[in-house]
């Protein structure tokens, strides 16, 4: 019962992050599952099974709101599914001892990316441009799908920034298209894990609890995204992912790190993490001041000129 409560909390927290940032559900939930001692392949399989439900609901919502570019979905989903299936079968073939540091290394890299992305540049932005081509979307889907399965997450952190950086699709359609296509990725990865691990390797009850926790968190995440600065939340979550996965790597049998060095590493990471959150807070308040000043300056510039003084006053 205690494990199920922890998993429900994991799903709840992961959905809060994903609903507020538009990415990192898989990265956050898999990191937390590893933290409570879940087998790496089983952790990724459980998360992807839960994502079948969450991504389907998200995709339908985006479709109804007109946030989906179906050309992008068609061109990125199939290679993404191939990459996800390949990553799932690859991870399933590894022993737990070999898989855990590999997955933690991928999660650490994604955590560093999220931390730097939101600390240095804030919320990703894009601009409307020309249609995206297949030669760009196909390799992107393959890489993002493979990373998503082997790392337990990564479709959003890899795919969303790449589409935004291309400058060829509206930001709302970037999020909608990535979320909608992720349903296919989750299904493909789940099939790969079921083939590689068998049904005995995946706990359906865990996936269900993760899904329930995510559903409960969804409306709260919608409130957070309106009241809590995404830039600060991204820095906070990125630091959490980095810290927990560095801990996993240090405790693995691949390297032997003295206790004094472990303490020093955790201290440095905590200080950098605190500095990043502080920097994001400072940048957020600076952006708010600029946004408050810009409309006033624009209103002053658009104000009609004062009428000319009467001739008597000019004499």
Fold blueprint:
Layout lengths: L1 H20 L3 H11 L4 H25 L5 H23 L3 H25 L13 H17 L4 H12 L4 H27 L6 H24 L2 H22 L7 H44 L8 H4 L1
What do you see in this structure?
Residues 294-315 are annotated as: Disordered. InterPro entries: TM_pro_TauE-like, TSUP/Inactive_protease-like. Residues 294-304 have a biased composition (Low complexity). By secondary structure, the protein is mainly α. It has one domain (17-298). The protein contains 12 helices and no strands. Helix 3 (40-64) crosses helix 9 (204-227). The longest helix is centred in the C-terminal third of the chain and has 44 residues, at 259-302. The chain is globular and about 55 Å long. Residues 300-309 and 311-315 have low confidence and may be disordered.
Provide the structure class: mainly alpha
Mean pLDDT, all residues: 78
Q: What Rg is obtained from the alpha carbons, in whole angstroms? A: 23 Å
Biggest sheet: strands, sense, closure? none
- List the helices and strands in order: HHHHHHHHHHHH
Amino-to-carboxy terminus distance: 91 Å
Approximate strand percentage:
under 5%
* Residue windows where pLDDT falls under 50 for at least 5 positions: 300-309, 311-315
How many strands appear in the DSSP assignment? Answer: 0
Number of domains: 1
| Helical fraction | over 70%
General shape: globular
Give the count of helical stretches: 12
Keywords: Cell membrane, Membrane, Transmembrane, Transmembrane helix
Subcellular location: Cell membrane; Membrane
Membrane topology: Multi-pass membrane protein
Family: Belongs to the 4-toluene sulfonate uptake permease (TSUP) (TC 2.A.102) family.
């Amino acid at each position: 019962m205690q494990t199920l409560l922890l998993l429900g909390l994991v799903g709840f927290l992961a959905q809060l992050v994903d609903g507020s940032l538009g990415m990192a559900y898989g990265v956050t939930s898999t990191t937390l599952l590893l933290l409570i001692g879940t087998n790496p392949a089983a952790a990724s399989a459980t998360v992807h099974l839960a994502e079948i439900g969450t991504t389907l609901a998200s995709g339908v919502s985006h479709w109804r709101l007109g946030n989906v570019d179906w050309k992008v979905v068609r061109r990125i989903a199939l290679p993404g599914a191939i990459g996800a299936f390949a990553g799932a079968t690859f991870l399933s073939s590894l022993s737990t001892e070999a898989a855990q540091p590999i997955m933690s290394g991928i999660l650490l890299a994604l955590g560093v990316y999220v931390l730097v992305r939101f600390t240095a540049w804030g919320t990703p932005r894009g601009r409307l441009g020309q249609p995206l081509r297949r030669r760009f979307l196909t390799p992107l889907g393959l890489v993002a799908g493979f990373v998503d399965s082997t790392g337990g997450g990564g479709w959003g952190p890899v795919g969303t920034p790449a589409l935004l950086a291309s400058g060829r699709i509206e930001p709302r359609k970037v999020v909608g298209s990535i979320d909608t296509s992720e349903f296919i990725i989750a299904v493909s990865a789940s099939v790969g894990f079921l083939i590689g691990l068998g049904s005995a390797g995946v706990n359906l009850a865990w996936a269900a609890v993760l899904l329930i926790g995510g559903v409960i968190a969804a409306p709260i995440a919608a409130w957070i995204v309106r009241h809590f600065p995404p830039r600060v939340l991204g820095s906070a979550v990125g630091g959490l992912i980095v810290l927990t996965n560095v801990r996993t790597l240090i405790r693995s049998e691949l390297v032997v790190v003295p206790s004094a060095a472990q303490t020093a590493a955790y201290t440095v990471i905590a200080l950098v993490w605190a500095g990043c959150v502080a920097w994001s807070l400072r940048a957020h308040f600076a952006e708010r001041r600029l946004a408050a000043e810009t409309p006033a300056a624009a209103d002053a510039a658009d104000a009609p000129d004062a009428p000319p003084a009467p001739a008597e006053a000019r004499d």
